[in-house]
Design a protein that fits this description.
- It holds the Pfam family DUF4470.
- Belongs to the DNAAF3 family.
- The protein is of the alpha/beta class and about 600 residues long.
- About 45% of the residues lie in helices and about 10% in strands.
- The strands form 5 sheets. An 8-stranded mixed β-sheet has the order 4-10-2-1-11-12-14-13.
- Strand 6 and strand 7 form a beta hairpin.
């Protein structure tokens, strides 16, 4: 995975749910498969919110692919650029484009090439790296992996990555015969899968479908994306002087929206009008990144920020077409001179990148036993957990597991995944700190167990029930959708609606119903339909609001349409029985009783 499928966490806040930070001198955090550094940035930006002035916070990053290490180095470098070298708004947009877009603006592509040159200086010259990016420590990385990193950065500079064509070919292969109707497939996945996920509605339909079609997740007005993003290339290698890659191996169904785009500390960013998001996940991500970058440099969140994209969630933007045959190659030669300034300082923090085989080597070393205070494990890495890795976590430590809540296509596996995780960690002697619903929560928090609790047994039974429902019922997700809609209705203020309904009910009780002159009352079709519609409407209201006094008013309305002039009383319940009424009419015609008198039949 090139990006995480869960919101960024302040890991120190998660740690405080289990232990206190007071008196701690050092906290070692292990990150397995985080891939994008979002938890690192979120944690170091919030350091001032915790009492850790005299505490060293160390992050140890384990990733299997060297390309993921290279991307994290680049994203950390951008995030820690001083404000006098890169403005906060432009920094956020550069970070977002490189993070989640297949195509870049030409200015972003040039910036990427320039930073790739600086990254080559960093990985090949440790003294320069400690001066230019002191937060990072590369001492654990092997020389062979240093050479791979250098080749990756050179590949970024040459940038012959045809991501648009690669994306389209993978899309054709994954959709098969549905490729010609791919717009309908994207619409189905958005409305029937993403909308069923709590928080998934923050992503607007337009931005999700555009990303599914051409891989561009974050867009702004008056911008053109034409240069491939080489940081998404995987399997980069060299053959003589030639550099190559094995294409794109990343996510093509969920999207890069969930790290920073589903929630915000500024509630106006989450505003909804007429069931439409006022601001897109792109705008929420941009605002969250600006707040985080400001807090990184100044130690506190900003009082006010300017965001150019206002209310774009209400705008229907037509996505542009991408020419798959045309490759845009920039005629640009970056400056090879090393930069002479330093990144934003982050005191008492270090990020250690570990070698690719660290999961095999590190647990076997005695000095690493009970070394880490907490660990984070991505949802696709939990299968690598074993007793040796778990032994590196302190008995008083904690473990954060990413769930598959935002993994589109694996929603049927969510309940079974939760049961597998619990069973596996229970074998290692771990238990949940708080109950986690693996289909509704993005993370699960565990600690060393003192014995199996009844809550864990209940959660296992819940997982079994969920798995059974998913296997037996092809529409199992419908129940979750109904529950989410019910929760939204509970949050609505319906007092005004109830007052209006009561007023309407009182007016109808005091009014009269006048029947037109006809040989048969039941032939007056419009009046019958009007009565049925009113009856059905109020019946729905009584189902939603089952209060006795309100139900009594509605029942009175249904039964009290009275014709004062002719003394006719029409019952709402009998009006719904067309078959019985028509039978009465036929019997009256057969007997010929008062066929020409024009009298009305009396219906009780």
């Amino acid at each position: 995975m090139l990006w995480g499928l869960s919101p960024a966490l302040d890991l120190l806040s998660e740690y405080e749910k289990v232990n206190t930070l007071f008196g701690k001198k050092i906290i070692n955090i292990l990150l397995i498969g985080s891939t994008d550094g979002r938890h690192i940035l979120k944690t170091i930006s919030a350091l001032k919110r915790h009492s850790v002035d005299d505490c060293d916070v160390n992050f140890f990053v384990m990733d299997l692919a060297t390309e993921f290490v290279a991307r994290q180095l680049l994203l950390l470098t951008i995030a820690l650029e001083p404000e006098d070298h890169l403005g906060i708004q432009e920094k956020a947009r550069l970070w977002m484009e490189i993070y989640g877009n297949t195509l870049l603006r030409p200015v972003t592509a040039k910036y990427l090439m320039s930073k790739a040159v600086q990254l080559i200086h960093m990985v090949t010259n440790k003294n320069y790296q400690k001066k230019r990016l002191p937060l990072v420590d590369m001492d654990f990385v092997k020389y062979k992996e240093i050479d791979q990193l250098e080749n990756i950065f050179k590949y970024w500079i040459r940038n012959r990555y045809s991501i648009a064509k690669i994306w389209d070919n993978k899309l054709r292969k994954s959709l098969g015969t549905r490729y010609d109707s791919r717009e309908g497939v994207f619409d189905w996945d958005y409305n029937m899968k993403l909308h069923d996920i709590k928080g998934g509605t923050r992503v607007c339909a337009g931005e999700y479908k555009l990303w599914r079609k051409i891989g561009i997740a974050f867009t702004w007005l008056e911008t053109e994306y034409s240069v491939g993003n080489p940081t998404l290339a995987v399997g980069i290698g060299s053959s003589g002087d030639n550099l190559y890659s094995h294409g794109y191996w990343g996510d093509m169904e969920s999207g890069p929206f969930f790290a920073f785009g589903t929630d915000s500390e500024e509630k106006p960013m989450l505003e909804v009008r007429n069931e439409v998001n006022v601001r897109r996940a792109t705008d929420i991500t941009e605002r969250n990144l600006q707040r985080m970058f400001h807090e990184l440099e100044h130690g506190s969140p900003p009082s006010d920020l300017y965001t150019a994209c206002i209310d774009l969630g209400l705008v229907m933007m037509k996505p542009g077409n991408v020419d798959l045959e045309r490759e845009v190659i920039l005629d640009y030669e970056p400056d090879p001179t090393p930069e002479d300034y330093s990144a934003i300082p982050v005191p008492n923090c270090k990020v250690f990148f570990l070698p690719g085989n660290a999961m095999d080597i590190f647990p076997k070393k005695a000095k690493n036993k009970e070394f880490f205070d907490m660990a984070f494990v991505a949802q696709n890495f939990y299968k690598f957990l074993n007793q040796d890795i778990m032994s590196m976590i302190k008995p008083c430590g904690c473990l954060v597991i990413e769930t598959r809540k935002f993994v589109i296509g694996l929603e049927r596996d969510a309940g079974c995944f939760g049961k597998e995780v619990r069973n596996k960690l229970r074998e290692f002697g771990w238990e949940e700190v708080t109950k986690c619903h693996f289909r509704k929560d993005a993370h699960a928090l565990f600690r060393k167990s003192s014995g199996e609790s009844s809550s864990e047994k209940n959660m296992d039974e819940q997982d079994d029930t969920e798995a059974a429902k998913i296997d037996d019922d092809p529409c199992a997700m419908e129940q979750d959708l109904t529950e989410s809609i019910t929760e939204e209705y509970k949050q609505l203020n319906l007092e005004e609606t109830r007052d209006k309904a009561a007023s309407t009910s009182s007016e109808l009780e005091n009014s009269s119903f006048v029947c037109p002159k006809s040989t048969n009352l039941l032939e007056d079709e419009p009046n019958i339909k009007e009565t049925e519609v009113i009856s059905m409407t109020f019946q729905e209201d009584t189902d939603v609001h089952p209060k006795e006094d309100f139900k009594k008013r509605i029942e009175d309305v249904e039964d009290a349409f009275v014709d004062e002039k002719d003394g006719l009383k029409i019952s709402g319940r009998e009006n719904q029985s067309d078959l019985a009424s028509s039978e009465v009419t036929r019997n009256a015609e057969e007997r010929g009783q008062k066929a020409e008198s024009g009298d009305h039949d009396h219906v009780n």
